[in-house]
Amino acid sequence: MDKFVIKGPCVLKGQVLISGSKNAALPILASTILFDKPVVIKNLPRVRDINTMLNLLRSLGSKIEFFDNRKKVRISKTKKPKHFASYSLLKTMRAGILVLGPLVAKYHKSITSFPGGCVLNGNSGRPIDLHLKALQKLGMKYEIKKGYIYAKSKGKLRGKNIKFPSISVGASQHLIISSVISDGTTTLQGVATEPEVVDLINFLNSAGANIKWVGKRACQIVGVNSLNETSYTIMGDRIENGTFCVAATLTKGNLLIKGFDPKIIKTELELLKKTGAKIKTIKDEIHIKGPQKIKKINNLVTKEYGGFPTDLAPQFMVLLCKANGRSSITENIFKSRFMHAMELQRLGAKISINNSKATIEGNTNFIGAEVMSSDLRASAALILAGISAKGTTVVSRVYHCDRGYEKIENKLKKIGAKIKRLN
Length: 423
Ligand code: UD1
Known about the structure:
Helix content is 30%, strand content 26%. By secondary structure, the chain is an alpha/beta fold. Strand 8 (141-145) and strand 9 (148-152) form a beta hairpin. The chain starts with a strand and ends with a strand. The chain binds uridine-diphosphate-N-acetylglucosamine (UD1).
C-alpha cells in the first residue's frame, strides 16, 4: 500500500490546474448504458474511481477507447451487452450502483451488487433505500439475494411523480438517468441541486434528452425513445478546487487556481475570506493568498448545495486547527465524517467530537507524525496537515486519496510541497 512522506512546513506558491470532476463524471459514465450511439466524454479526471467505472462499463459490454492521455474517452456498444455488475467492481465505489437503473431502463433486467465506498455513516453503512424505492415507483421489481439486487421490469420503465423524502445526490442522479428513456413523464421533487447533478442534466440534454427544472428542487423528465451521439466536457472538480484553496490559506501561500468557474463555490470562497484569505476571481481562475493569521469560524455547518459541502469539512477542520481561537463544525450529512480527527490529534490538534459537532481549539502548531487515511476526503485533510506541520509526516492508505484526487502529489510538488510517494 502506498504512503506519502511529507516534509513541512511549506508555503505553497504557483499555479494549479483543476481536473475534471469525479463526482460529475461517474453518473455521466453510468448513463452511457442508455446510448446505442457512441459518446465522447472529455476532461475526465485520471483517478481510480473513474477507472473502476470504466472497467464496470467494459464488463457490461461497452467498448472504451482512450485519447488525449486518457482524459478523453469514446464509449460505444459492443453487440452483446451484459447486465451483471459484479461485487468485485462495486465493492470500492458507491457510485457503481448508478448502473442499476440504466440497465433496467435499457434492457429491463440487471443483477447488481450492493456498492461499497467511503464508510461515512457508522454502523448504518451507506443505504440505497431512496434509490430502490424510487426505481420501484418507475416499475422496477427487485429482490435481494446474497448481496446482489436482482431487478427487472416489464418492458420500459414508466414515468411517475416521485417525491424524495430526503435529499440525496446519488438517488437524484440515478432517477434522472433511469427516467430519460422511460415511457411518459417523470417529475422528481426533493432533487439535489449540486453542480454535479446539473452537469449530468446538461450532458443528457446535449444528447437529446428532455429534462428541465420546474422548481427549485423539482425536475421534469419527458421520456425519449433514444439518445443521440454527443461529445461533452465534464465540469471542473469543486472539491479538488476547494482543497487547493484551503491549502493556500493554510500555508500563507499564493496560488492561481485555473480551470474552474469560481461562481460554483461562492459559499466556500466567502468562508475562506472570513478566515482572512485574500481572493480575486476572474472567469475560470481564482487567485488566493493566505493570511499571516488565520481567523476562527464560529459554527461551520455542512449542508446540501448552496451550503457548505460535507466533502470539504475535513480540509476546513485542518485550517481551523491553525485559527486564532476556538471554532466548530457541525456535520449534517454523514455520521462518520470526523474519523480523521483522531489522526489530526497525532499531529497535535485539539479537537473534541460531540455527536455531529466537532469543536476545534485553534493555535495548533502541527508536528509531523505517522497517520492513516480513513476515507477519501480525510486523506486530503491529512496531507494538508502534513504540509503545514513541522517535520516529517507519513500518511498511509493513500489509496483513498487516489480514488478521487488526480496525481495530488505532482500538483503539490509543483507549487512547493515536499511530498513523495513510497510504494
Ligand atoms: C455524493 C458524493 C459524495 C458527497 C455526497 C453529499 C458522489 C460519487 N459522491 O454521495 O462525495 O459527500 O454526495 O454531498 O457523487 N442516504 C440514504 N439513503 C439513500 C441515499 C442516501 O439514507 O438511498 C443518505 C446518506 O447516507 C447520507 C445522505 O442521504 O446521509 C446524503 O447522501 P447522498 O447525497 O446520497 O450522497 P452520495 O450520493 O452517496
